[in-house]
Amino acid sequence: MSGVPSCPQCQSEFAYADGNQFICPECGHEWSAASAASAEEQVRVWKDAYGNALHDGDSVTVIKDLKIKGSSAVVKVGTKVKNIRLIEGDHDIDCKIEGFGSMQLKSEFIKKA
């Protein structure tokens, strides 16, 4: 069946659309088309400041001087960061910067190297 997802409760492939909802004839489960679309979009793609997709283990470069909170130190433009790890949250890159140690960065301030 084209465009109709399997039932999220019993995994039946005989679900059908009824207006703005999907219905499973085997178990009787009903769900909205919006919830089905959001379930498919749960895969997050991290992107740098220029729209390039990021992956765990990538090397990136800082594109803006970044002040370190609680310190007078600054991570300078052009600092290369190797072997990043992508995480959920506001600061979505976990990494170690030589001379500074472990920290988290926002993907909007880096570019893929």
UniProtKB/TrEMBL annotation:
It comes from Leptothrix cholodnii (strain ATCC 51168 / LMG 8142 / SP-6). This is Alkylphosphonate utilization operon protein PhnA. Belongs to the YjdM family. NCBIfam families: phnA (TIGR00686). Residues 47-113 form the Protein YjdM C-terminal domain. Residues 5-32 form the Protein YjdM N-terminal domain.
